[in-house]
Each structure stands twice: as C-alpha cells, then as structure tokens.
Amino acid sequence: MIAIRYLGSERVMELGLAELRGAQIERQDFLRADLSGRDLAGAVFRDCELRVACLDWANLEAARFDHARLMSATFRYAHLRGASLRHASLKGADLSGACLIGADLTGATLRQANLSGANLCGADCRWSDGEQLVLAGALYDGATILPPAFRPHEYGMIRRITAGRA
After folding, report:
1. Which of 89, 108, 105, 98 is CA-nearest to residue 144?
2. Do residues 112 and 89 lie in contact, with contact meaning Cβ atoms separated by under 8 Å?
3. Domain residues of the chain, as ranges?
4. Got the DSSP string for 59-77?
5. Which of 21, 38, 69, 145 has its CA 20 to 30 Å from the CA of residue 56?
6. Strands 2-6, 33-34: pairing kind
C-alpha cells in the first residue's frame, strides 16, 4: 500500500498499489500531493489532477502525463527523460533544472512556466503556449524540435554541441 501525503495538510491517501513505478493511475486527485523523490518511472497518469503537486527530484523517466492538469506543480531537478507531457497544462509550473532529454511537450501549455537550467536536448518542444516562459540557461541541441520561428538565444537558452558534431 502506497501512502501519499499532501502539502500543508494532515491528509493522507492510500493507493492500493505495491509500488508507483510503472503504475497505471486513473482519475486520482493529487492536488497539492507531495510526490518528491518518488520513483514514478513509466507511470501513466490518466485524467489525474496534479495541480500544485510537488514532484521535485522524482524519477519520472518515460512517465506519461498526456492531457494532465499540472498547473503550478513543481518538478525541480526531476528526471523526465523520455516522458510524455503532450497537451498537458503546465501553466506556472516549475521545471527548473529538470532533465527533459527526449521528452515530448507537443501541444503543452507552458504559460509562465519556469524551465531555467532544464535539459531539453532531443526533446519535442512544439508547445502551444509559451507566453512568459522562462528558459534562461536551458540546454538544447540539434535534435531538439523547437516551435516554428522560435529563437532560443532570445530566451537565454544554451546550445549543446556534441564533440565531433556541429
């Protein structure tokens, strides 16, 4: 049985799961849940509420958050390699320092989100709304797919050049 604690509350939710890694989670309310440092690799969150949730330092490799509601959630230094955030609502979310290598952000709403220092190498960054998006110090490379007419240098992004490649 997995116990989930909530920020600023005595509330605890018990999920009938042995572990969260690779879990299929549907229609659960994780509003203000503290999932920091958890191993959620390969987990699928279907129709889940994750607003203001804390996922700092969590292992979210290959996790799926498609169409998830992640407004104001924090993913500071989280490992999101190969994660899918297609059409997710990340308005005001903090992904500073997160590893998003190979992640899919297609159609995601990133208005007022913070991706400073995040690693976006090889990621699909064709988000739908990046107004007031903070990308200072975020890494990208030749495999990163950026929105049309997007100028990464204007946002303070850093191009990573692999040795032997230009």
Report:
1. 105
2. no
3. 21-166
4. B-TT-B-TT-B-TT-B-TT
5. 145
6. antiparallel
Query: In whole angstroms, what is the distance from residue 99 CA to residue 4 CA?
Result: 24
pLDDT tens-digit readout, 4-51:
777 777 777 777 666 789 999 888 888 889 999 999 999 999 888 999
Determine the pLDDT at residue 98. Answer: 98
Per-residue pLDDT, 5: 75
Q: Which of 148, 145, 118, 150 is nearest to 134 (CA)?
A: 118
Fold classification of 21-166 is Pectate Lyase C-like (2.160.20)
Handedness of CA 83, 77, 34, 69 (dihedral sign): negative
Amino acid at 45: F
Query: Do 112 and 90 meet the contact criterion of CB atoms below 8 Å apart?
Result: no
CA 52/CA 136 separation, integer angstroms:
23
Helix (H/G/I), strand (E/B), else coil: 152: helix
Average model confidence (pLDDT) across the chain? 92
Nearest-angstrom CA–CA distance, 55 and 74:
6
The model's pTM? 0.90
Residue type, 133: L
3-state secondary structure of 154: helix
